[in-house]
Backbone:
């Protein structure tokens, strides 16, 4: 009888652990880099302009209390500069990712950051594909060259995936 009770207790414990793991919510925020300096049309890797630097600070202000566990950025000045204020505040070094492979980043986040919150800083031509790779469904199909205000939030809890479309900055 004691062995039966012990087996039941062990199985109950494992079942409870399994429920806790399944109930973890992973939150991913996705933004396009802030406004870039367009004064040199020949540069392929421009810095942020003054408005962009301010928007990066605005992003830091709204994200600082979100318990960010990781910041992902493409390897461009404008994305790294957009992430910089938050990165410095949280003492998190941005993790460089390849925006041309959204599935790879989605798999990494869901494997290594399950139950946590992360920020992805990307580009107008990559953020929506990244949102879809995570299972999110944005209501718009493109981001205009002049639109820097989008902040997409994807929450994943098991098979329940929600997409919120927010705005930030001026």
Residues:
């Amino acid at each position: 009888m004691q062995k039966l009770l012990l087996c039941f207790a062990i199985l109950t414990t494992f079942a409870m652990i399994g429920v806790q793991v399944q109930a973890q919510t992973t939150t991913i925020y996705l933004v396009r880099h802030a406004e870039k300096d367009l004064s040199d049309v020949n540069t392929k890797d421009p810095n942020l302009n003054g408005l962009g630097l301010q928007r990066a600070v605005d992003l830091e202000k709204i994200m600082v209390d979100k318990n960010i566990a990781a910041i992902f950025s493409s390897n461009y000045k404008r994305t790294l500069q957009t992430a910089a204020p938050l990165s410095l505040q949280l003492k998190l070094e941005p993790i460089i990712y390849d925006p041309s492979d959204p599935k790879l980043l989605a798999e990494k986040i869901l494997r290594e950051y399950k139950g946590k919150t992360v920020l992805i800083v990307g580009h107008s031509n990559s953020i929506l594909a990244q949102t879809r790779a995570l299972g999110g469904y944005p209501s718009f199909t493109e981001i205009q060259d002049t639109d820097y205000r989008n902040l997409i939030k994807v929450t994943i809890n098991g098979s329940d995936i929600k997409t919120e479309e927010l705005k930030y900055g001026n």
